[in-house]
Amino acid sequence: MSEKPEKLIDKKGIRLDGRKADELRPLKLQVGVLANADGSAYIEHGKNKIIVGVFGPREMHPKHLSQPDRMVLRCRYHMAPFSVQERKSPAPSRREVELSKVIREALEPSVFVDLYPRAGIDVYMEVLQADGGTRCAAITAASLAIADAGIPLRDLVVGCAAGKIDDTVVLDLYDAEDKLGAADVPVAIMPNLNAVTLLQMDGILTPAEFETAVGMAVEGCKKIYAMQKEALRTKYMTVKEEAEE
Amino acid sequence: MPTYFEKKQLVTPGELLAEGDYIAGENSYMEGNKIYAQRIGLADAENKKVNVVALRAFYVPKTGDIIIGTVIEVGFNGWTVDIKAPYTAMLRASDVLSRPFKPQNDELSQVLNAGDLIVAKIASYDRAHDPQLTVGEPGLGKITRGQIMRVTPTKIPRVIGKKGSMISTIKQETGCQIILGVNGVVLVTGKTVEDEELAMMAIQKIEAESHTSGLTDRISLLLKEEKSKREEKKNE
């Protein structure tokens, strides 16, 4: 990182990367990118690049981890050594273990876990390039990959963050804003059911600011949700067109 | 009591399908009085029942299903069988040997060994127990010849066709015996390898174009064309 710039957002409300306060980074979503996984998805969220592979439902290994009344969802969030500027050790760090848990808890409410007791689903998220907001991008892609595996879902889960830089509440922080800004609020929701599955806050916000931030993140989620649905449809679009003939 | 989709509309999980006096059918669920989709698929309403024909799903065992599985382990009194489902199935030795089974006399791996393929029927399965298989019926048992291919389980009904029209067309044209495992594994046994390949090509085509209409006629035409082509080659 170079030295801290004087201002993260200028008088006109333009941020360091040229975005407005309530603007998302450009997004690209793709479904079914891996041949050997049961379901897969790829997301490019700004400079974030994350690939997700899903296996299952299949028999749980080791067996003692299986639950007699429900299916177990196992998530692994992992950053590639080349995903950040300083080489990251490939061994799972404290942060990755925590994020894996947080993401699992964000995805679990969307899956009908009680339909297939004793079975397990494995979700592997591999961060190829990180630029802030990876947990939200990973959730968005993981949910798509689970849907692609044919696993029944209540709704797709979509994640997006909001935060505060200088004195302004803004949407979708990238790495520099996250590190130098005042606060970061990642949110994941199931838009059709109007349910929040992840809500974290890092930093200091007044209650009023917090509410604006959450509202902003939810709006961002809804925008991403539209793209998420589109990405899932695109894979099967040819099917639909021919069925209409 | 409106519905929010057109017939055969492509829906994604979580999409609101209907509200009010409807019943959630296949691949859909009810929350309050609203019906949502569970899987990606094509929505359809039948009377008051809202269904989604899934485009992506996996096999879930059902008692009475004929399946094709792979033996993965030889145990003390039976075999563990991979049936391409969330659960592995058990096949008991006494079921195969059709006489009391004694570990001293019988060496199980000589009957079925790891890697063997079997056609079997699901004898029992419920939430609390892994599926049990049986081979005690004609047509079931170890597979000794033929070729295996995999089809998405949701498309097996399409390969069968209306009242078996599709599958009987393929059988007639190629002279192959075809066993469709409900779990998406298909066994094709013919007189020659060419016959088998012809049948497999037809099944692959059905899988790729399962959602189009008039498929049975097109498949029968395709098989006839391919056959005459091969005849010509032979005569040359």
- Give the overall shape of chain A: globular
Return the string of H and E elements of chain A. EEEEHEHEEHEEEH
Q: What does the radius of gyration of chain B come to?
A: 21 Å
Reading side by side through the largest sheet of chain A, how are the strands ordered? 1-2-3-5-4
Instruction: Tell me the number of strands of chain A.
Output: 10
Range of strand content of chain A: 25-35%
Q: What oligomeric arrangement do these chains adopt? A: heterodimer
User: What are the secondary-structure elements of chain B, in order, as H or E?
Assistant: EEEEEEEEEEHHEEEEHHEEHH
**Which percent range describes the beta-strand content of chain B?**
25-35%
Number of helices of chain B: 6
Radius of gyration over C-alpha positions of chain A, nearest whole angstrom: 18 Å
Strand order of the largest sheet of chain B: 8-9-10-12-11
CATH class of chain A: Alpha Beta
Mean pLDDT of chain B: 89
Biggest sheet architecture of chain B: 5 strands, mixed, barrel
Taking the sheet with the most strands of chain A, its summary is:
5 strands, mixed
Number of strands of chain B: 16
What does this entry look like structurally?
- The complex is a heterodimer of chains A (245) and B (236).
- By secondary structure, chain A is of the alpha+beta class.
- Chain A has a single domain (27-244), classed as Ribosomal Protein S5, domain 2, CATH 3.30.230.
- Helix content of chain A is 30%, strand content 29%.
- Chain A is built from 4 helices and 10 strands.
- In chain A, the strands form 2 sheets. In chain A, strands 1-2-3-5-4 form a 5-stranded mixed beta sheet. In chain A, strands 6, 7, 8, 9 and 10 form a 5-stranded antiparallel beta sheet that branches.
- In chain A, α1 (94-107) crosses α2.
- Chain B has 236 residues and is of the alpha+beta class.
- In chain B, the strands form 4 sheets. A 5-stranded mixed beta barrel of chain B has the order 8-9-10-12-11. Chain B has a 4-stranded mixed beta sheet with strand order 1-6-7-3, with no helix packed on it. Chain B has a 3-stranded antiparallel beta sheet with strand order 2-5-4, with no helix packed on it.
- In chain B, a hairpin with a 2-residue loop joins β4 (28-31) and β5 (34-37).
- In chain B, α4 (165-174) packs antiparallel against α5 (193-208), α4 packs parallel to α6 (215-235) and α5 (193-208) runs antiparallel to α6 (215-235).
- Chain B starts with 9 loop residues before the first strand and ends with a helix.
- At the A-B interface, β3 and α4 of A face loops of B.
